[in-house]
Amino acid sequence: MKILQTARWFFPHTGGGTIRVYNIAKNLVKLGHEVHLLVHHPDSIEQCNVNHTDEKIKLQEEYDGIHVYRLPYYPPNFLYWSISIPLMTRKAYQIIRQQKIDVVLSDNPPYLVGTASYLASRMASIPMVINVHDVWGATHYSSIQYKVGAMLEQFCTRKIGHFVTVSEGLRTVLSDSFQIPTENIGVAANAIDLSRFNINQNQVDQILARYLQFNLKKSEKYVVFVGIMRQWAGVQYLIEAFGKVIQVHPELKLLLVGGGGDKEWFIELAQKFQIMDHVIFTDALPYIDIPAFISLGTIACAPFPSTRVTDQKQLMSPLKVLEYMAAGKAVIASHVGGMENYITDHQTGLMVPPGDVDALANKIIYLVEKPELIKKLGDNAREFVQNEKFGWLASAKVVEKMLLESQNHFLNSNLENISK
Predict the structure, then answer these.
(1) Res 226: pLDDT
(2) What is the distance between the alpha carbons of residues 81 and 391, in angstroms, rounded to a whole number?
(3) Which of 60, 273, 314, 393 is the most exposed place for a label (fewest CB within 10 A)?
């Protein structure tokens, strides 16, 4: 198949959305398909977690066998929401015609991408599948953006017949909310590339040598968090909890890896709780370097808060937790919807109630005082994710199946219309 994949996020943005888009595309290529990926310009997106380098962002390039196209830069504001749809529609249609695309795979939300992709696919008379990453309604969007996004979500889900989601919980939400038959929704869970975490100490040292400004030391004990610096990731609870932790274990350091719109507020919070001497903030880092930073952690945390997304039963498919586990780290994670699919308490990690600062602090203190348990949890976690069902190739095969089904359904529908 020749596939046009559309998304909002891609490198140099770093985050869960980009990681999913990249790995699905890369593994579709591995399965023998030709993938063309159309994305927004990263600097046009508000609150984007971008790893900026001196290299100019290219509007067209080949990345690991994926043909990547980016929209031109426009300043990030609400007006961009309205102009991005016709911009992406036009570019998507152009690619479809020039490359003779067979099917569109659109990653959402927000449904700016889905709406543009649907319009382009209709203009070109080819089928489309929506890859739904999570439920619509991230907390950083304004009320107007939320309402517009909800309208576009309704529009797209009523027009499209085949979907892919990250979890069984999200499949249930989609089916119940939009009356979509469950057999038309494939579940392609977030996954892990274990090879990225098979790194030796020499490789770690070489990577960290490029980041001397952070003054990282192998002799230190770090509690590590990797992800976007936003409140929806729960970093504020980890910072507050760490203020309690260092009263008992002042030798510990908190390593916060990532960039994002709330970073300055988190720095102010760290100052408020008087932990700045114990915390290291990085910026957004290249995807390829992340395993080296995780490797420094004695404990790795995923302090997700209670939100409309995380409270949904069986909904989450947390990439950061899978990466921590692949690195063989002892994980402390919030007990949010779907986390139980990965963390079995005291077996593959520890869980705490979301937003409970005292519980989080106590679990960190408890764990750091039990080195044998740290090793057991890390070893069990690594063994758990070695199952091939956690590989991206398995998820890409689910996407491939839904793309083929959408093609067959589209062809049969056209034949029925002709016969009439």
Answers:
(1) 96
(2) 34
(3) 60
Note whether 2-191+391-419 and 194-388 share their fold: yes
**Predicted TM-score (pTM) of this structure:** 0.91
Q: What topology is assigned to 2-191+391-419 in CATH?
A: Rossmann fold (3.40.50)
CB distance 257 to 290 below 8 Å: yes
CA angle (315, 321, 326) in 5-degree steps:
130
Say which residues have a Cβ less than 8 Å from residue 79's Cβ, sequence separation at least 6: none
- Are β-strands 60-63 and 66-70 bridged in parallel, bridged antiparallel, or unpaired? antiparallel
Mark residue 190 as left, alpha or beta (left: phi above 0; alpha: psi -120 to 50; beta: remaining): beta
Rounded-to-integer distance, Cα 158 and Cα 155, Å: 5
Q: How high is the mean pLDDT in each 10-residue block of the chain (420 residues)?
A: 96 88 97 97 74 76 97 82 91 98 91 92 96 71 74 86 91 89 94 92 94 92 94 95 98 95 94 97 93 97 80 71 96 92 94 97 98 97 89 96 95 69
Alpha carbons 63 and 5: distance in angstroms, whole number:
14
Residues 80/104, Cβ–Cβ less than 8 Å: no
| 3-state DSSP assignment of residue 76 | coil
Residue 273 token pair: 């709780």
Q: Is 48 helix (H, G, I), strand (E, B) or coil?
A: coil
Q: What is the model's pLDDT at position 309? A: 58
What CATH class has 194-388? alpha beta
Q: In whole angstroms, what is the distance from residue 239 CA to residue 256 CA? A: 9
Beta strands in 335-412 (DSSP E): 350-352
Residue 418, burial from CB neighbour count under 10 angstroms (0-12, 13-18, 19+): exposed
User: Within a 10 A sphere around the Cβ of 310, how many other Cβ atoms?
Assistant: 21
End-to-end CA gap in the chain: 29
SS3 for 290?
Answer: helix
Residue pair 319/190 in contact by the 8 Å Cβ criterion:
yes
- Domain-wise residue ranges, the chain: 2-191+391-419, 194-388
Write the CA distances from 361 to 235, 257, 330, 352, integer angstroms.
13, 19, 15, 10
